[in-house]
Amino acid sequence: MKDHEINMQRQSKYVFIALFLLTIIASIFLVKSFIITIITGVLITYIFFPLYKKIRNGLKSDNFAAFITIFIVIVIIFIPLIFVANALINQSIQFFYRAKDIEFGKITEVFSKYVGDGINVETYVKDMVNNFSLSIAQNTSDFIVSLPKKAIASFVILFIMFYLFKEGQKLIHKISEHIPLKEVYRKHLTERFNSVVYATLYGVVVTAFIQGAIGALGLWVFDVPSPILWGMVMVILAMLPFVGAAFVWLPAALYKIFAGDLVNGIGLLFYGLLIISTIDNVIRPKIIGSKGKIHPVLVLLGVLGGLEVFGLFGVIIGPLILAVLMVFLELYILEKKELTARKH
Questions:
Q1: In terms of pTM, does the model score above 0.70?
Q2: How many other CB atoms are found less than 10 A from the CB of residue 55?
């Protein structure tokens, strides 16, 4: 009888595990198209959670504080994003048609004086610009087609944010309680995780967006076509170590100078050197302070790998995933050292 009961318990256990795994797989399948949306909601909540706490302390109401914070997020992020997206679409289309008519004759003459006639600079640059413009046109077309889906995603993001503002801390506390680690390691994991996420979001992402916005303003002031489009390119490049926004504003300034527009060319050159390129060194230390630093290799691999796997939003998710992985590796090394010390 006991053997029969033991067998029944084992079978029930295996059935439960099988059903549990199937449920997880089915759940992932159901929400897979919203995974990026969910992550976006979580990250925006994280960024604005300090603001929510201040509002909550003043109002003493979770619901009202969440509504006000979301309204602020809509005003700061979503409404400007609509205008930026509209301008980006128009400038992308304009750039696609303008790229065909760009003349590189003067630039070719200058290069030929110093390099010689062996390198066909005009053909190389034209091919590069044409490929870039075709890529922009394709992405713009995909973006326009997906606008209804993005509207739904925006609603889901705001919905997730509302409940995360209210219940996020309780949820994190429950998750941390069930992590199968000692209290000291659990505390270390929580602190390091928080510092790494903070440093990644603020030190890498927010800084890059500020640099891209200031760069786009400079391009607009010095009469560079499609400043918002190139500003978005600068955002991505600003996240890459040893690359930066100079890969956009410097060629634009040189092109202006070689094309004979000395005022705008020299003006953009000084603006880039004195403001765009130095702002990273000013803002980043002030934002992250002594928080966890992110290794440049992790940022580089994270941005490039994230772009390939997740698309444009991967520039945020990629470095974050690798940074969190390093936190778990640090924890593993700490625990291994303790076990080795105990044996000796």
A1: no
A2: 19
Query: How far apart are the C-alpha atoms of 312 and 44, rounded to whole Å?
Result: 16
Residue type, 39: I
Integer Rg of the chain from CA: 26
Q: Whose structure tokens read 């301008």?
A: 87
Cβ neighbourhood burial of 126 (10 Å; 0-12, 13-18, 19+)? middle
End-to-end CA, the chain: 48
Going residue by residue through the chain, which has 344 residues, state the pLDDT in tens, using 9 for 90 and above.
Answer: 455 566 666 667 777 778 878 888 888 888 777 888 888 888 888 888 888 989 988 887 888 888 999 999 888 888 877 777 777 677 666 666 665 565 555 555 655 555 555 555 556 666 666 666 666 666 666 666 677 787 888 888 899 999 899 888 888 777 777 666 667 667 777 777 777 777 777 777 788 888 888 999 999 999 888 788 888 888 888 877 667 788 888 888 888 888 788 888 899 999 988 888 887 777 766 666 555 566 777 777 877 788 777 776 777 778 778 877 877 787 777 777 777 776 66
User: For residue 262, what are its two tokens?
Assistant: 């000395």
Give dist(CA 213, CA 277) in Å, integer. 13
Cβ-Cβ contacts under 8 Å for 205 (sequence gap 6 or more): 239, 315, 316
227 and 220 in contact (C-beta within 8 Å)?
yes
* Cα(166)–Cα(171) distance, integer angstroms: 10
Place of tokens 């979503």: 78
Instruction: Single out the residue of 219, 258, 228 nearest to residue 113, CA to CA.
Output: 258
CB contact at 8 A, 55 and 65? yes
The residue among 88, 81, 111 whose CA lies nearest residue 226 is 88
Contact between residue 309 and residue 244 where contact means Cβ atoms under 8 Å apart: no
- By three-state DSSP, how is residue 269 classified? helix
Alpha helices in the chain (DSSP H): 2-31, 35-59, 62-73, 79-98, 105-115, 121-145, 147-177, 183-198, 207-221, 227-239, 246-258, 262-271, 277-288, 296-310, 314-343
